[in-house]
Structures are given as C-alpha cells and as structure tokens.
C-alpha cells in the first residue's frame, strides 16, 4: 500500500541511510526493472506522485551492492541483535511497513521518526554491505577463495583476472588424498598449503604431523627456496654416505624441471658428455644444420 505522505518517504529513507542524495528517477527506474522482471504493471510498485513500496528500495539497494536481510517478522526477532553492533557491514535498519530508517549512533539506534523505536517495529530488515567481507582483498589486490557447505566446489578469484570466478571441483578429493597417503605409509610425506609446510610421519596409530615452516606472514617462494636448498644438501650428503641414489635424484630433478616447463639447452649435454672437444664441435655443426632446415 502507498502511504499518504508527501511522496518523498522512500527518497528520505535512502538518503538517511546512505548519506548521499538519491534521485527520484533512480527509484522509478528500479520500479520499472522490477515490473519487467515480474511481468506486472509498474503501478504495483510506485505511482507518478513518488510513492514507492519497500520492494523498490530493496531492489535499488541490491543494485548498489547492499542486501536487505529480515531481522524482525511479526514482532519476532530472527537475528541476534548483538550481531548488528560493531559490524562494519551494517548500514542501518528499515521498517518495511512505514519505511522509517534507523542508523546506529553512540546513543543507540536513531531514526527519522523519533516517536518510533527499534522495539516498536513489527517487520524490519537490516541493510548490509555485501562486499564488506571481501573489501580488504580488493584493497590489498590479493587473491581469495570461497567454499560453501552446499557443494564440493572452491570458487577462486585472482586480481590478474579481475577477480573473475574460477570454480574448481574438489569432489572425492579427500578419498584421493587418503589413497595416495596409504601408498606411502612406510615413508614420510611432505605436504603444503597456503599457510604452512608439514611433514607426515607414519605411526602405529596413524600419522604424526610436524610443521616445518609457517609462512602465513612470510614470502612463500622464499620459504620454499630455503627448504629446497636445505633438502638438496641433505640428499647429496646422504648419497655420498650410502654410495647410491644418484639415479633416483637424476630422475627426480628431471621430472621437476619438466613440470616447470623447462627445456634442456645443448650445452647441458656438453657438460655431461664423454665426447672430445672435436666431436662436440661436429655435433654442434650438425645440430645447427638441422635447425636451419
């Protein structure tokens, strides 16, 4: 139902909450969009005199990145009142019947209609900035990932792709990881994520984990470099001590280089070849001839 006021209630409500001017034309446009979506007459949502129903305000706020979430229905609170306090996402509260807006001040909730309190409302919504939980990621220009309880997808967002959503399925991933770990249950396993590097050691009651490095606040590449260099020294020392293992290290390093899309240069073969310098020169000439064909 439309109220018998001066027709500016909706405009006043939004301006009180948002702290900037709202044109009546933007509300008419929002009403027209709603009418088109629901395939009804625009008079269901507004009239020429400037009277608007709550759904128009809700739609306009949504287009500007804000959500209206029910906090009170039939005089029953549906949300903990405490979660509205000290919450940077909260813009304010709207009485969905009278459109009376409330904003939180040092003295409590303050509204345009001073005769009404938050407790007096029968039906109300809280206006929330939907982007607030992600705002710091945008400011820091850093990646973020979203998972839900409804599926096995992880939604990945990277600044290099303007945070375009890339959904990666993790369905049955736990079973795959468990199966792979069981294959290696006689030896240690190194695992890493975006927070730490851990080593799992087989134990009679399962696996024991030990954190090697926690790099939540440290450059990840530098930490991996530090571990790689330390491991390389240990591996070489171990091979020298036992007298075998170079074949395993060779294949492991080649596999690693291959996964990094590396290409072995011709000089690499010179370093490990038993050919004489003259034979190597002939080999280079032959290779150059092939390249020029």
Structure explained in plain terms:
This protein is α+β, with helices and mostly antiparallel strands and 293 residues long. Among the domains are: 122 residues, no CATH class; 40 residues, no CATH class; 28 residues, no CATH class. Strands 2-1-6-3-4-5 form a six-stranded antiparallel sheet. Strands 7-8-9 form a three-stranded antiparallel sheet, with no helix packed on it. It has a three-stranded antiparallel sheet with strand order 10-11-12, with no helix packed on it. α2 packs across α3. The chain is elongated, with a radius of gyration of 32 Å. The N and C termini lie far apart (83 Å). The mean pLDDT is 83.
Name the features:
single chain; about 290 residues; alpha+beta; six-stranded antiparallel β-sheet; three-stranded antiparallel β-sheet; 9 helices; about 20% strand
Helix content: 25-40%
User: Would you list the SSEs in sequence order as H and E?
Assistant: HHHEEEEEEHEEEHEEEHHHH
Strand content: 15-25%
Cα-based radius of gyration, to the nearest Å? 32 Å
Helix/strand-derived category reads alpha+beta
Our count of helices gives 9
Strands of the biggest beta sheet: in what spatial order? 2-1-6-3-4-5
**Can you count the beta strands?**
12
Structural shape: elongated
Rounded mean pLDDT score: 83
In the predicted model, the low-confidence regions spanning at least 5 consecutive residues are none
Distance between the termini: 83 Å
Q: How is the main sheet built?
A: 6 strands, antiparallel
């Amino acid at each position: 139902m439309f109220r018998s006021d001066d027709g500016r209630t909706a405009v006043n409500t939004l301006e009180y909450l948002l702290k900037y001017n709202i044109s009546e034309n933007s509300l008419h446009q929002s009403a027209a969009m709603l009418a088109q979506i629901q395939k009804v007459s625009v008079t269901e949502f507004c009239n020429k005199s400037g009277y608007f129903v709550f759904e128009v305000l809700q739609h306009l706020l949504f287009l500007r990145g804000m959500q209206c979430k029910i906090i009170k229905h039939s005089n029953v609170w549906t949300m903990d009142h405490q979660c509205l306090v000290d919450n940077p996402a909260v813009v304010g509260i709207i009485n969905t019947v009278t459109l009376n807006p409330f904003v939180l001040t040092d003295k409590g909730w303050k509204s345009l209609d001073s005769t009404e309190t938050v407790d007096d409302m029968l039906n109300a919504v809280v206006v929330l900035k939907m982007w607030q939980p992600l705002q710091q990621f945008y400011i820091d220009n850093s990646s973020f990932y979203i998972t839900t309880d409804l599926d096995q997808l992880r939604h990945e967002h990277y600044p290099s792709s303007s945070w375009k959503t890339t959904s990666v399925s993790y369905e049955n991933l736990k079973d795959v990881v468990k199966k792979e770990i069981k294959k290696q249950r006689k030896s240690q396993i190194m695992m890493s994520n975006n927070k730490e590097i851990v080593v799992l050691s087989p134990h009679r009651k399962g696996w024991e984990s030990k954190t090697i490095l926690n790099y939540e606040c440290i450059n990840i590449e530098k930490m991996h470099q530090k571990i790689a260099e330390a491991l390389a020294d240990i591996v070489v020392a171990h091979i020298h001590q036992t007298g075998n293992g170079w074949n395993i290290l060779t294949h492991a390093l080649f596999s690693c280089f291959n996964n990094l899309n590396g290409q072995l240069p011709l000089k690499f073969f010179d370093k490990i070849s038993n050919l004489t310098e003259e034979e190597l020169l002939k080999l280079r000439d032959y290779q150059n001839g092939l390249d020029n064909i």
